[in-house]
Design brief:
Elements (H helix, E strand, L loop, with lengths): L1 H6 L5 H7 L4 H29 L1 H21 L4 H15 L2 H12 L5 H30 L4 H20 L13 H5 L2 H32 L3 H29 L1 H21 L3 H14 L1 H19 L4 H30 L3 H17 L6 H9 L1
Length: about 375
C-alpha cells in the first residue's frame, strides 16, 4: 500500500502540475518534498523502534500515512496544502522500512534472510504496479486526479488493523548501547549506504519521470505510459525472489556486482532507444536487474553485517541505510525536472541516472561477502 499510494502520483504529475500551474522542476519537487520528510523519518523511527518496540512505531506512523493520503484527495486545494498533505503521508510512511525489515531481521534465520526480504519486497513491487497502472485509467474515467488517492486511502488505513491483529512486537534481547555515530562511521555499512543511494537514484528517475517522458517524447498515452513503467515492478517480482534465494547460498556481493552494471546499461537504453519495442525491452531489463531486484539482497547483506557486530541496533542501522538510499529520491526527481526545463528533454536525466547507478558498483566493492564468511565460521 505504501508503494501504491506514492506511485499513483507519478503518472499524474503533468495533470497536477497543470492544475496548480507548476513548472517541471516544481512538479518534480512534489516528489522531492515527499522524500525529504520520508528520509528524515528513517533514522528516528529506527532508534525509537529499537527502544519502544517496532510494532508500536509502525501502528502510529501508518495511521498518519493513511490520513495524509485521505487529505490529499479531499483537502489539497492549493499548492501549499498539497505539499503539506503529501508530507504528512511521507511522515507516516517513513517509518515502514525500518520497522518491517527490523522485525524481520530479528525473527528470521540468517540462512533465509534474503528470501524473507524478497517476500516483503514483493509487496512493494505489487504496490508499484498497482499505483502506476490504476492512476491514469481512474483519472480518465472520473476526470479527477484526486480519485486515485481517495480509492487508496481506505485500504491503507485498514492495514493498521491488520498490523494490530497479526504482528507481534519485537525488541532487542539486550539493552540498546550502540550510538548513531558508531553506525555512521562503520565503513562497511557506509559503503552499502552509498551503493543504495546510487541504486535508488536511478530507480526514482525512472519511476517519477518515465511516464511523463513516454508521453511527451515517445508519443504514448497517459494510461499506457503508466502501464509501461509498471513493467519494471512486474519484472522484478520473480527475479527478486530468485536472486535473493541464490544470495542466501552463493553470496550477496557476487550478485550485486553483476546487477549494477546491467542496471546502468538499462537506464542508458531507456533514453537512447526510440521504438516502442525497444522501450519495453529496456524497461524489462531494468526491472530484472534494477533497484527492486537488488533491494532484498542489500537488506540481507546489511542484516548479516549488523547482526554480527551490533545486534542491539538493527532497526537503527536499517533506518540509516534507508536514509542514505532514499536521499536519492530528494535529489533525483527535482534534478531531472530541472534538466528537462533547461534542455527541453528528459533524456539527459536518464543518462545521468545511468552514471550514478554505475558508481554504485564501485561502492559495492568495499563490503565483505557475509555469506561466505558465515559459512566458514560454521565449519
Amino acid at each position: 500500500m505504501i508503494y501504491a499510494d506514492r506511485s499513483t502520483l507519478y503518472p499524474l504529475l503533468p495533470i497536477i502540475g497543470a492544475d496548480f500551474h507548476l513548472s517541471s522542476a516544481e512538479a518534480g519537487g512534489l516528489t522531492s518534498a515527499y522524500f525529504l520528510v520520508y528520509t528524515a523519518m528513517q533514522v528516528p523511527a529506527g532508534f525509537v523502534g529499537d527502544r519502544m518496540g517496532l510494532k508500536r512505531v509502525l501502528l502510529v506512523t501508518y495511521t498518519l500515512a493513511g490520513l495524509g493520503l485521505l487529505a490529499v484527495g479531499t483537502l489539497a486545494r492549493d499548492h501549499l496544502l498539497l505539499v503539506a498533505f503529501i508530507a504528512l503521508h511521507a511522515l507516516g510512511a517513513g517509518a515502514y522500512y525500518s520497522s518491517a525489515y527490523g522485525m524481520t531481521m530479528q525473527t528470521v534465520p540468517a540462512a533465509v534472510r534474503g528470501l524473507s526480504s524478497a517476500i516483503i519486497n514483493s509487496g512493494m513491487a505489487l504496490g508499484l504496479v498497482l499505483g502506476l497502472a490504476m492512476s491514469g485509467p481512474v483519472y480518465l474515467a472520473l476526470q479527477s486526479w484526486r480519485a486515485p488517492f481517495l480509492l487508496l486511502a481506505a485500504p491503507t488505513l485498514a492495514m493498521v488493523l491488520v498490523f494490530a491483529l497479526t504482528l507481534r512486537d519485537v525488541r532487542p534481547e539486550t539493552k540498546v548501547k550502540t550510538r548513531l555515530v558508531e553506525i555512521v562511521t562503520d565503513w562497511r555499512l557506509m559503503a552499502l549506504n552509498l551503493a543504495a543511494f546510487c541504486s535508488l537514484y536511478g530507480f526514482f528517475v525512472v519511476i517519477t519521470w518515465a511516464p511523463t517522458f513516454f508521453q511527451a517524447e515517445r508519443g504514448l498515452s497517459l494510461a499506457v505510459a503508466g502501464l509501461y513503467t509498471a513493467i519494471v515492478a512486474a519484472a522484478s517480482l520473480p527475479m527478486g525472489m530468485l536472486l535473493s534465494r541464490f544470495s542466501d547460498r552463493i553470496g550477496r556481493k557476487r550478485i550485486t556486482l553483476i546487477l549494477f552494471p546491467l542496471a546502468a546499461v538499462a537506464l542508458w537504453a531507456l533514453a537512447y532507444v526510440r521504438s516502442t519495442e525497444a522501450l519495453v525491452v529496456a524497461l524489462l531489463l531494468y526491472g530484472l536487474v534494477g533497484k527492486l531486484t537488488w533491494d532484498p539482497i542489500s537488506v540481507a547483506w546489511l542484516g548479516d553485517t549488523v547482526a554480527a557486530s551490533r545486534p542491539d541496533a538493527i532497526g537503527a542501522a536499517v533506518g540509516v541505510f534507508s536514509f542514505f538510499g532514499v536521499s536519492a529520491a530528494i535529489v533525483g526527481p527535482v534534478l531531472s525536472g530541472w534538466i528537462r526545463d533547461v534542455s527541453g528533454s528528459l533524456e539527459g536525466a536518464f543518462y545521468l541516472g545511468a552514471i550514478v547507478v554505475l558508481c554504485g558498483f564501485f561502492f559495492a566493492l568495499a563490503p565483505r561477502e557475509t555469506v561466505r564468511r558465515a559459512a566458514l565460521e560454521r565449519r
